[in-house]
Amino acid sequence: EREERRERREKRDKREERGERRETREKRNKREEKQERRETREKRNKRERKKKEKMALDRVLRQLKEVLCIPIAHVIGRWCSPTMLTMIGLVVGLCSCVAVASGAIVAGCVLWWLNRLLDGLDGVVARITRTQSDFG
């Protein structure tokens, strides 16, 4: 009878020990989940900070573009509509792709920069001449 009681007590102790281990596993899982959430939150915050920094730089560059392009836009706006500038920019961009594909890298880069200039100018010309449209 004593031996049976001792065996039962030992079995009970083993079960309690396993229960404690299970509890420890649960705590570890919770800790790991919490760590993952923290890392995810940190990544998201970092991404948002980069986005805000990029937006600030974009705002500065946009203002600089406006200041630099206004004198050019006054002259070009007399002869070209914003839509015409958009179409010319499209053609120049396509020519840039063709030049790069055929191996003329420098010519392709020059055409690409011209495309970027025309793309920036069409909006400025539209604002100056008050002919803004959804197409441009």
Which terms would index this structure?
136 residues
Short description:
The protein is mainly alpha-helical and 136 residues long.
Task: Provide the fold topology.
Layout: H1 2-76, H2 82-101, H3 105-129
Helix pairs in contact: 1-3, 2-3
Q: Could you characterize what this model shows?
A:
The chain contains three helices and no strands. It is rod-shaped, with a radius of gyration of 34 Å. α1 packs across α3 (105-129) and α2 (82-101) packs antiparallel against α3 (105-129). With 136 residues, it is an all-alpha fold. The protein starts with a helix and ends in a 7-residue tail after the last helix. The model has no long low-confidence stretch (mean pLDDT 82). The protein has helices at residues 2-76, 82-101, 105-129.
Euclidean distance between termini CA atoms: 95 Å
How many strands in all? 0
Q: Beta-sheet strand percentage?
A: under 5%
The overall pLDDT average reads 82
How would a crystallographer describe the biggest sheet?
Answer: none
Helix content percent band: over 70%
What radius of gyration results from the CA coordinates? Answer: 34 Å
Low-confidence stretches: none
**Helices and strands, in N-to-C order?**
HHH
Classification by helices and strands: mainly alpha
- Count, helices: 3
Characterize the overall form. rod-shaped
